[in-house]
Description:
seven-stranded parallel beta sheet, three-stranded antiparallel beta sheet, 10 strands, globular
Amino acid sequence: MKSDSQASTTSIVVMGGGTGIYPVVSALKQLLLDITTIIAASDSGGSTGRIRDEFGFPPVGDLRQSLAALADDEAAREIRTLLLYRFEKGSGLKGHNLGNLILTALQDITGSTTKALEEAARIFRINGRVIPVTEEAVQLKIMYTDGTEAVGEHILDETTDKPKPIDHVTLTPDCQINPAARAAIQQADYCIIGPGDLYASLLAVLVTPGLKEVLQQSNTPIIYISNLMTRASQTANMTARDHVVAIEHAIGKAVSTILIHQGDIPKEILKTYADVGEYPVLDDLETDSRVIRTNLLQNMSHSQSSSDTVRRSLLRHSTARLKTVLSQIVQ
């Protein structure tokens, strides 16, 4: 946590993947806080995966989402449109995201993902910092309970009739936490984890060697934002308690606050999820005093581009509702 001699602005670190934490970052930005996002570096699907295969740089897809969320309000709409634009045609460009291509060019120019993001923040007038959890081009290694293994985060997007339960995940090859990420956590007043896919987004950050030790050495309160729905390929039958246990095992300490959505979800949306074996995360933390329950659901369901090959969530957390509850916690 920051010393008394440092700036009084509340400093928040948000950890996870780009899509899940997008509304969190958007909410915190409205509270005029000092925001740093620490993002998974193991994405291997869609446009990001294609660029990664061709250029060999650490993936930028989730990093681009955080840049878009942090864009300066005066030009936010135009910058978000540019960073999130996805090509719908063209044999070579179809499915690619323009923001991914821009960040890849900056990686090539600067020779570093962290420096590329610093340049992007300057160019696009970003109010905050976006940091990859490691500078290495790593892959997510998945160990299943039956003893088999697989490598590649994109594997967790593949749907099967009988997905295998996951035992744990690691990163490969060997890597270390980005020094910039370590410094951000050490100076933070609060750390927020999630929401996001448990293994592909959250644990893909939290299992980075060195991160657990930084969190254990810090007294910074940790807020965990629970997912709305399970993911058949990752968290089938996992309850809210199961998610919290997995998070706390990874960081080696207890979280301070747990945010859980409480409210109805449209039946037609529930049916669409149920058709692929996904259901609302069961709240079995009735007696846990750390839990805050409130309506966190965005009213409008998400629509996906036809050229986007990665399956996205239909339901998202509401920026406005997150702003309300987070303002009560951090201010």
